[in-house]
Amino acid sequence: MILSIILQCLVAVPTANAQVTVEYNFNACDLMETNGLHSDLTASNLACQCGVVQDAFEMDGSTTLDFPLSVNEQFESDFTMSFYFQMENVGENVDILSLQRACANIDSSLTVKYNNSSQTINVEMAEGFAKLVDLSGPLNESQCWHHFVLARKGLEYFLYLDDELVDVELANGSIALADSTTLKFSNGPCNEIKLDGRIDEFQFHDQFLEGLALNALNLTMDRILNKDTTIFLGDFVQIQSGNTCANSFSWSPTNGISDTNITNPEMSPTETTTYFINFFNGFCSSLDSVTVYVLDPNNLECENLLLPSAFTPNGDGLNDEYGISNNFIIEEMESFEIFDRWGEKVFSTTNKQEKWDGSYKNTILNPGMFLYKINYRCVNESYSKVGNFSIIR
Question: What is the pLDDT of residues 381-392, one digit of tens each?
Answer without folding.
Answer: 999 999 999 999
